[in-house]
Amino acid sequence: MKKILTAAVAATLAMSSFGLASAAAAQSRGHHEHRQNGHDDRRGDRNDNREWRQDAREDRQDARQQQRAYARWQRAEQRYNAGRYQAPRGYQTRQWAYGQTMPSYYRSNQYVVSNYGQYGLRAPPRGYQYVRSGNDVILSNSNNGMIAAVIASLFR
């Protein structure tokens, strides 16, 4: 009987240890699968974050470009009467843009807008002046004629 009892205890221990081992293996597989899925989820979140940061970066770049463009080229909110415009001899009315250079003839007193306050313009920075070209006003360097800003359609 002692042999039967020993065999029964051994079988019970063997079955319970096998059960524990298989339960541990199943739990380990489940944990491994969960870890793997969690890793994939984190990778997906990382891609979402990258896309969000890229979108935010592009939005900031667009805003900066719009701000620069607005500072360099503006449409006048109010229009003023300033009399008839006549282009300098040998020149015709044209659209100017930031970075271009105006001919020296435009920098003569005939085309310089000295009463800028009357037209709602701020005082030009030192070394700059407002010049009329057609219905537009151009802020240009008074020494070399380099255009810093264009205010379109200020005059009627």
Q: How would you characterize the overall build of this protein?
A:
With 156 residues, the chain is an alpha+beta fold. It is rod-shaped and about 130 Å long. The chain has two domains: 72 residues; 77 residues, inner membrane protein cigr (Nuclear Transport Factor 2, Chain: A, Roll), CATH 3.10.450. Strands 1-4-3-2 form a four-stranded mixed sheet. The model has no long low-confidence stretch (mean pLDDT 75). The chain starts with a helix and ends with a strand.
**Shape designation:** rod-shaped
- Report the sheet-strand fraction: 5-15%
Q: Could you say which structural class the secondary elements and strand pairing correspond to?
A: alpha+beta
What's the end-to-end separation, in Å? Answer: 121 Å
**Strands ordered across the widest β-sheet:** 1-4-3-2
Please compute the radius of gyration using only Cα atoms. Answer: 40 Å
Instruction: Give the integer mean of the pLDDT values.
Output: 75
Q: How many discrete domains?
A: 2
